[in-house]
Amino acid sequence: MRDLTLLMTAGGVLIFVIVAALFTIAIRSRQGAIGHRGGMRLVLWAGAIVPTVVLAALLIGTLPAMRPMKADDRALVVDVSGEQFWWRVGYRAADGGAFAAANEVRIPVGRTVDFRLSAGDVIHSFWIPGLAGKVDMIPGRTNRLVARATRAGRYRGQCAEFCGLSHALMAFDVVAMEPAAFDRWLTEQRRPPPTPATLVAQRGARMFADNGCGGCHAVAGTPATGRIGPDFSHIAGRATLGAGIMPMSTANLVRFIRNAPAVKPGARMPRYTHLAPADALAIARYLETLK
Amino acid sequence: MSEDDTSGDDDRGLTERLRERRVTLWTLIVPPTVWAVHFLFCYLWVAVSCAKQGGFARFPIAFVAGTILALGIIVASGAIAFVQSRTPGDPPPHDESTGIDRTRFLATATLLLAGLSFVAVLFTAAPALMLTDCR
Amino acid sequence: MSLHAQDDPALRAAQEERLRAVWKPPSGWFFRWTDVNNNRVGVWYTLTAFGFMLFAGVLALIMRAQLAVPSNDLVTASTFNQLFTLHGSMMMFLFAVPMFEAVSIILLPQLLGARDLPFPRLSAFGYWSFLIGGVFVSGSIFFDVAPDGGWFMYPPFTTRTDLSGLGADIWMLGLSFIEVSSVAAAVELIVGVLKCRPPGMRLNLMPLYAWYILVVAVMILFAFPPLIAGDVLFELERLLGWPFFDPAKGGDPLLWQHLFWIFGHPEVYIVFLPSIALFAMMIPTFARRHILGYPWIVLAAVGTAFLSFGLWVHHMFATGLPKISLAFFSAASEAVAIPTGVQIFVFIATLWAGRVVFSTPLLFALGAIAIFVIGGLTGVMVAIAPFDWQAHDTYFIVAHLHYVLIGGTLLPLFGGLYYYWPLITGKKLSDRLGRTAFWILFVGANLTFFPMHITGLLGMPRRVFTYPAELGVDGLNLLSTVGSYLFAAGVLVIVVDLALSPRRAKAPRNPWHAGTLEWLAHPDDEDWGIRSVPLIESRYPIWDQKDFVAKVDEGRFFLPDAEEGRRETIITTTIDARPAQVIRLGTPSVVPMITAVALGSVFILTTYHLYWLALAGGVVTLAAVLWWLWSTAEIPEKREKPIGHGIVLPLYRSGPAAPGWWAMFITMMADATAFSGLVFGYYFFWTVHPAFPPSGLGMNGPGAFWPMTAMGLTLASWAMTVAARELHARGQVSVARGLLGVGILVTLASLFAGLAGPWVTGLAPTLHVYPAIVWTLAIWTATHAGVGVICQSYTLARSIAGRMTPEYDADLRNITVYFHFLALTAIVTYATIGLFPLAS
């Protein structure tokens, strides 16, 4: 991809320079510098034949690159669904028990990952610039993207198809981990989060339940099983909040809880401005225990 | 249509007959129309096979035959145009207000379009030889 | 009238007096707007489109201000979405396409030595439709209800009424209205190029601009109707809940993308080719020689037109279609670069062979080509799918498309403005201001858009109202913002130059010493267009034909007079431009304006769900159209008239020799294309569903009986119409009337039979996409049968009123064309809905 870009850019610059030079010569030349026959030869060769050959070579050279990467038997299948304006992530039972996540995808280095892409409401597009090209997420269809990370690290992903008010605020993180670390992470994710230990977190858990947060958000092992919003079972393990738009911190959590539409225009989460700051803080503290 | 040519056995007779075929805006667009039909045929063949069967034949006869047929029509139309564009008269550019110049102009343009359409059909056919599945 | 007669100055003065009286524009504060003369309507059209361009440009400046720094909050996300949707939609629908039509309405009659286009009232109708629709769509932003779904309006975001509001309807209905006027203009321009050329202007002598206009107008004919079909489905979903794009009920959002881009990609060439056409007029003038490689230009225009219809899926490279499908479109996208390259090398060769005289318009042309070439090269890059999967929907594409559109549409139009201003106003624009503007624009465009290539490759997606500082693109964005304001300053210089124009003195005639026909225009122009219609013997008659200008001015060519006090122009044959007929042209009238207002009311009232009022508007529209046709078509007072040099031409022809027949034929081609968009929808749904038609309550139908009955009735009515035409031509008027009378009843019966199928089987269109698409096809065909009833009734009434006789039978011949298409529509519809379910 990188080589192709460089090759095409270099070719483009060369063609531009040649065309510009020809224009300059053509303008400066005296009348009748070339006759009808010479001019026609120029049009035939430089205008028709050379471009045809160059374009044919480019087409034939790049067609094989269109073949998608093969998903082998060991491939990790990850379901991702685009929602306004966040990402629903699901890992399948084949690897030992299905679980849900959101806004962060963790993948093992060196193993092919078979993303199954769909959409819950409108069209989104799944794009991790550092890893692969984009693939649209279209309601009613499931698209596939097979990719493989060759080095560990954090890749930024984002929605690339205009999907509404907060299209600009719909990013996510892809964390490529060494296989052993990834397996440990998988095991952790399959366990429900620990029950809150501190008093304030326990109060937060009650506030979470009393305010009906569980109607939209799920926390494994608790009565909260909502599927309208992102899954919170391990929210504290994510680096960012609100689909990649701000770092995970207590202050940001409080901000989001109290007035999500202000942070994220068009988000389906209503305002909770009536919630006392202390209560919101308690909920944030509770969420921070969900690791 | 023009009246029939009398003698038809020697080479010159064929050339003359071709030259007397009428050249119009409709004959001008024959080559690119063939490209369009071929293109649509390829696209629909793949779209329907992939959607309905999940795959398509590796070296499909219909596709090969269709491509050869399309190229054949384009070459034929180009050849007729070539002969017509050589109708004797003054040298190019054909910019006199005469029937011959008009014919030669339209024939030249048809010949050029045949060349472009030929290349375009080859371009369209290339993917089917290099990509073999529906993914 | 011999050549000799024109030597008499008194005769010439008398002729001029008569011509002047005939072509006198209407006056009065209201009635001056009822003018239909191409010079005036074309100028209104151009100024309006220019105004919309400035408006849309201001929207872009607001966007650039918002994006100048990361996490900016100058405008809200909602406003920003309205801004970019409206910017794109206006530039495409209210500027680029109408501008080309406007310029063509001004230039084409002059290029062809015609007095006016064949249907001046249709031009006026197109203009008023454009103005009403344009103000309706663009004004919505002041009420914060502008469309906000992007110019591509992808469902389901835009079809779900809980996610998008009035803006989507405004876009869909307002712009549909403008599409109708674009198709109307295309009909006018095609007939103009094919039938209104001056005697002797065979196809090989046509000005290249006319070739391009012909090609582009034909493209409009095939590109716009699929979008109109898409609009129909879209509004049926939004207003009635028919689930074409709702996957929960069997619909598919991708159908819209296909229909939109089948329009959307040719659209790019529709706005680009006219600019190349301007180059093709300017470059020979400033190279002081004939264009070199005239057939190559025709190759390029026709080749581009065809190939551009095989590119649409390259806008859908990321939708997950099979890679091999994408590859076909990738191949065609590469191939289309070939004819474009040819065009550019024809210009190089012409400049090389000629003696270049430098001028402001040429400067604009060369700068535009430089920018366009960059856009073309990045276009070749994004046609390669693996590259596009990264670049798609990023700022790289924003850079690419603006290079193409600025280099391929905007700067050429500014060049054309400097070139043709003397033709329209008799005055030259300032060379100094023009060059200043050019350099500001050139630097501004590159400063704005070049950095965007990098911004995009660094990962900034399009259509975002803000971006985080971490992305590392803030410097590049600031550069783009500075560039955009510089660009705006360049436009401002041009506006100032235009504003100063009224104070300047008149320029000499033909100030660029061009060789083409349009430069006959005199600085103190008369409204009659051309003094006498010349005999053409060269591509550059002013350069090559002896005493050409004087002969035209002294009325020594054809039709130098208006003896009967009528507006007239000559119709010639399509290939060889042999004189065939003199037609009488429409005169100033309020009818086009009334029709446009009535039709506009249908679309606008539907937007606000005022269906009864909209229906009333529809009835008024129909009445206005019938009145228009009834009052325009007439039997001439004499059979033929001399046009000079011993040539006598008929004043009336019917069938394929008449412009009206061609207009009907071309309009029906567009109609058939829209219909094929709907049929494509049916078979598209068949491919995406394993079982189609599905079975279940409300989904079983429409059976074979009623569709076959409807098909049989339509064909019977068609046969009666054809028979009526034949017998009428043989003088059996009463038999023909009888056939038409029975035909009316049979067509009406076919209408009800067509609807009976889905009705009696209880197909429920809101339940699933299958009943919805069957109903749509049935209603489409029934509506056409309804129009068929009106056609037959109208013709019968004309015959009874004595306005149609066996000799003057254009009405009957024209409706027969309609019935050919009606029969075809009925066969396809009823075979699809009635027979295909039995086969699949």
TrEMBL record, chain B:
Name the keywords, alphabetized.
Membrane, Transmembrane, Transmembrane helix
Q: Where are the transmembrane segments?
A: 23-47, 59-85, 105-131
What is this protein called in UniProt? Uncharacterized protein
Q: Which organism is it from?
A: Sphingomonas palmae
From TrEMBL, chain C:
Q: Which residues form the Cytochrome oxidase subunit I profile domain?
A: 17-519
- At the top of the EC hierarchy, this enzyme's class is translocase
A Gene Ontology biological process annotation?
oxidative phosphorylation
Subcellular location per UniProt equals: Cell membrane
Protein name as catalogued: cytochrome-c oxidase
Q: Which PANTHER family match?
A: CYTOCHROME BO(3) UBIQUINOL OXIDASE SUBUNIT 1 (PTHR10422:SF35), CYTOCHROME C OXIDASE SUBUNIT 1 (PTHR10422)
- Which reaction does this enzyme catalyse, per its entry? 4 Fe(II)-[cytochrome c] + O2 + 8 H(+)(in) = 4 Fe(III)-[cytochrome c] + 2 H2O + 4 H(+)(out)
What GO terms are given for molecular function?
Answer: cytochrome-c oxidase activity; heme binding; metal ion binding
Q: Which UniProt keywords apply?
A: Cell membrane, Copper, Electron transport, Heme, Iron, Membrane, Metal-binding, Respiratory chain, Translocase, Transmembrane, Transmembrane helix, Transport
Chain segments annotated as transmembrane: 42-63, 83-112, 124-143, 170-194, 206-228, 268-287, 294-314, 326-350, 362-385, 397-421, 433-458, 478-500, 585-604, 610-630, 661-685, 705-724, 736-760, 772-796, 817-839
State which Enzyme Commission number(s) the record gives.
7.1.1.9
Q: Would you name any one GO CC term?
A: plasma membrane
Q: What protein family does this chain belong to?
A: Belongs to the heme-copper respiratory oxidase family.
Named in its record, the pathway it takes part in is: Energy metabolism; oxidative phosphorylation
Q: How does it sit in the membrane?
A: Multi-pass membrane protein
Lineage start: Bacteria, Pseudomonadati, Pseudomonadota, Alphaproteobacteria, Sphingomonadales
